[in-house]
Amino acid sequence: HHGAPVSLMKALGPDPALTAVLADRVGESLRGPGGSGLGGSGLQPDDVVLLGAAGSSDPRAVADCEAVAAQLADRLAHPVRATYGSAVEPRLGEAVRQARESGAARVVVATYLLAPGWFNDLVGRCGADVVTAPLLGADRDPDPRLVELVWRRYQGL
């Protein structure tokens, strides 16, 4: 309705709950049955991990993505580089190419997107060895930690 009041809630990330879900998605994508690797994540020391985000011209959003990458690196006990599909460097496809040129055993992309769509398709075509699913998808129920995070943000309005 025209003229109706609108409230904006704080961005979902960075938040430890979001980072935990991202880390679990990396582990699910790599481990399979009887997984191993660094900290049980399935990662090996010569893997390159990239956080695949949409990108934004807003420096605050970019800083948030960088913070999520740092939190994910701590959680995985493995370096994570934030990369973007648009608006800002480094671009995901270029980062995948650079990782290959540097001799990475595997390139793993932790998809930092809420749901399937144009950017998720772009991430899926980046050429990485492993690409995690977006945070929400039709093939699974929403992670309870994400539901709780949305609820906390809503309550903070």
From TrEMBL:
SUPFAM superfamilies: Chelatase. It comes from the Bacteria. The keyword Metal-binding applies. Keywords: Lyase, Metal-binding. GO terms for molecular function: lyase activity; metal ion binding. InterPro entries: CbiX-like. The keyword Lyase applies. Coiled coil: none annotated. This is Cobalamin biosynthesis protein CbiX. The lineage of its organism: Bacteria, Bacillati, Actinomycetota, Actinomycetes, Propionibacteriales.
